[in-house]
Fold this protein.
Amino acid sequence: MATTGDSAASTRQRSDWHEALAASITRLTDRLIAVRRHFHRHPELSGRERETTRQLKEWLEEAGADVLVAPQGCGLVADLSNQVASGRTVRFAMRADLDALRIEDCKQVPYRSRVPGVMHACGHDAHSAMLLGAMLAVRELIDDGVVTFPVHCRAIFQPAEETSAGAREMIRMGALERVATIVALHVDPSREVGRVGLRRGVLTSNCDEVQITIHGRGGHAARPHEARDPVAAAAQLVNALYTYIPRLTNSQDAVVLTICQVEAGDNANVIPESVKLKGTLRTLDEPIRLGTMEHIAQIARGVSEITQTRIEVGYGVSAPSVINDRDAVDLLRQCTVQVVGEEGVEWIARPSMGSEDFAMYLQQVPGALARLGCRGPRRGGRPLHSPDFDIDERALAIGSRLLAEAVLRWWEMRA
């Protein structure tokens, strides 16, 4: 049975590491901002994040982490421990993504993207900086002897989130081996800095890439009756899909179909042979997902018959729903209260129709994704994937401390 003295010492130790962590993050804040701005200036597209990976590897190895780079040089896994790990040692994992988007950065700021047509419009630069900061802070507390209970943590810096390919690649390389729990943060411009959005269960939608090819017969622009115009068929098809998918779906079931790419022709006076359409289908329930796919095929068959074209419907890379584990969400809630207070917790009422390939990790191990507020009075309120997206950089210290808090709290509960 613990004595009063033992209980007081235990309470003091908990208080000590919480306070030491807050102090460590404060010291790291300027560096976190510099790291985020460096990545923002030098964005790399999905599957090309080699320089970002190289830089992170250098910083993490300087901090004493064991680093394993993914086979293609994009993405890495970094481990930190304060005890010798055995083959059975489990780890608490944190994940950040690395890739940018094909969007021109229109912000007039010193850290504006220097890569034409490419920018971090989804906050992955911030995610990487925050995870690096969490690892550096945990390392400092271990080195200073503040944390005496066992700690084995893993940072997964993942490429290609925007194409839903990166999580699969990291899982194949063994990123989840002996991982017991995994957490991640995503910046959220709809929430103020100091607010963290949490939800148990389904958080995001299934996302399927829709690929449609319309095969017609080319011809002269002046004589369309001699051709079978795939452009006219494409226009009819998009209009029919947008009109009838909502009419064929129960209004209480969430379905979002959006066509975002149209590829057709090379000349202003030549009807092309084919048109390619690409977009995404987002759903929350598997029966609705499969039913909507059948509705798309049915509509395509009808347009094909009317326009005398041949229409192929296929699906590319998909990402399942993020389904947050209750215990992992409760852990993040406790950490949020510790970092920003009870008022910082915001429960998310409904799932988002956005997608996240973090879901693929959650199919393997329990974990949770949280929404980190990044909107400030002067910066950070523009939507994700917009050309003027930015964050209030006060969010970096909050997110970094929240991740480190989750690692240490999880291990302390098992000590």
Remarks:
- Confidence is low (pLDDT under 50) at residues 1-5, 7-13.
- The chain has two domains: 4-203+321-414, 206-319.
